[in-house]
Amino acid sequence: MSAKNNINKISKFIQANPEIDGIVITDPSNLAYATGLNFQGLANIGNLCVIAFFSDQKRFLACPKILAAAYQEAGWHDSIITYSNCSDPESAAVNISAAFITELFEGNKAVLGYIGDRIMQTVFEKITGRLKDFTFSDITESFGRLRQIKSSFERRTLEAAAEYTDHGIAGAVHHVSRNGAKSEKYLTEDIRVHTLERGLPVNGYRAVSQAVSEDNAAVLWPNAPYYAVGRDTNFFEGKFIRLEMCGMLNGYWSNDSRMMVKGDMNSSQKAFADKMTELRKFACGQIRPGVKAKDVFEAINMKAIEMGIHMASEFGYGHGIGVAPMEPPYISAADETVIEKNMVLVLSLAARYTVGVSELYITKDTLIITDDGCRIVGWYENWDYPYTAAYTF
Fold first, then answer.
1. What are the tens digits of pLDDT across the range 169-211?
2. Are 212 and 323 in the same domain?
């Protein structure tokens, strides 16, 4: 990830909001956004605590000594103050941060922004306790908006991530033949490996895939207990197969889902695919600047009912994407966010196909919001219809 890009965005944010004098960032997602290092283990390793601070004058990072080089390699070239391994890393990071902030403002009372829906309560209590003369202001909404509106660098990166992922899925399905055996486990791994071969990094915790059909496709993520490696179930000719992949490029995620059939679709499958293609086109027509996310959700819902499609709407019909694979805004019944130009969304349409078996037919498309609408990015193939495997590779 280019740390410089987002550091500049945050600096401009502070300049545009003179009511705050600095920002304290402590949670893994926003640290990834601010520093350029998308370190997946930060939330799960108990002896690590990282705090980033931004002001109009200076920036610094408090982190364990073992992570300092990683942050520098990711593009953080401002001050890094480290602490050694200890029993209370939160207090160590807070003490370093409080001393730096107190010296920076030379005893003057300042207003520090924090991201209230993300900061750990224990860290917040410790840092406010050490900085009692400072005022703390919750900037969750405004900082969230900053992340939602993507820069040209972010849009290019997300588009490339979507392209690599889609190309990887297409490469994997070209290794499926109509009369050849292929299990969930092997097709799942084929998807991941083909995507990595296109250019996504091979680091751990940066890619996850699945390929499922029939009963295993009746739920959203059946292979979770198997770490998404899949099962030894073989795919049968004439059945829908769902193919999903999340990957990462330069710290930014892709989130893709496609459908295929081993062989030709029957008439009911073809009719269902026709409806889903029409619904996707309708949904893309609703997603444009000035429209609330919840209104898009409602419009898709009503259209699906009109078309006789049984949608799985409990998780909404899409979301933002960036340094997290799912982030605001959410195309859901409760999200009041107004869609704006340069947002990047994933349109996720999940519907239940119930002819002979109940399974979820899911398509996910990355969209960049334009002046007056949106455009789908990343398609390596035309996904208006499921891929149909031939007799040979």
1. 999 998 888 777 788 888 988 999 999 999 888 666 677 888 8
2. yes
Instruction: Evaluate whether 294 touches 307 at the Cβ level (below 8 Å).
Output: no
Same domain, 165 and 281: yes
- What sign does the CA torsion over 73, 78, 79, 81 have? negative
296 near 331, Cβ under 8 Å? Answer: yes
Contact by Cβ (8 Å): 155, 342: yes
Domain limit, last residue, from 147, 180, 210: 147
| Residue 156 and residue 288 in one domain | yes
Beta bridge partners of 350: 362
d(CA 66, CA 47): 11
Residue 85, sorted as left (phi over 0), alpha (psi -120 to 50) or beta, turns out to be: beta
Bridge partners, residue 320, by sequence? 327, 345
Predicted TM-score (pTM) above 0.90: yes
Partners of 243 in the β-ladder: 211, 258
